[in-house]
Amino acid sequence: MEKTPQNKSNHRRTDPAYHFFLLPAVLLFLVWSVIHLVRHPGHVPMVFVGLAIILMVMSAKLRSYPLKVQDRVIRLEEQLRLSRLLPEALRVRISELTESQLIALRFASDAEVPGLVERALNERLDRKQIKAAIQNWRPDYWRV
Fold it and tell me: Each residue's pLDDT tens digit in the chain (144 positions)?
């Protein structure tokens, strides 16, 4: 587990191999390829630019697919959690919560959830507003 307690200001995670190696390397390759194409026009430099663009798209997808899967799992976990914690009047409204609201609510303590869900539904709070309203942060150290 993490040494620093998680809160609203430090809950975002980075993957050093992805954010500080792969993305900069692919971006550098793209820049180099474009410069090479401008200085030495031809088929081979065009292939390098094409490969660099393909690598950029693959890098973005490499990151986005697991995050989307995690969002789906979080949505399911939160729907189960809310069905356990909410009074009947709010339980029937769980389906009205957006994916973004459900993902943000995972950081709220069990005691805060009913009030925050009611506010999120009535005031249409977005992810940032929900996170800002949380008083007792429930950490999520499993996020990729």
Answer: 456 777 666 677 778 888 899 999 999 999 999 999 999 999 999 999 999 999 999 999 998 999 899 999 999 999 999 999 999 999 999 999 999 999 999 999 999 999 999 999 999 999 999 999 999 999 888 776
What are 10's two structure tokens?
């430090």
Q: State the chain's maximal CA–CA distance in angstroms.
A: 69
| Model pTM above 0.85 | no
Packing angle, helices 43-85 and 23-39, rounded to 10: 150
In the DSSP assignment, the letter for residue 18 is I
For the record, the structure tokens of 17 come out as 């191999």
Quick one: which of 80, 76, 142, 141 has its CA closest to 113? 80
- Residue 5 is classified by DSSP as P
Report yes or no: 107 and 11 within 8 Å, Cβ to Cβ: yes
**Element at 1 (helix H, strand E):** none
Tell me which DSSP letter residue 15 carries: -
- 């940032």: which residue's tokens? 128
> Which residue's entry shows tokens 């971006």?
27
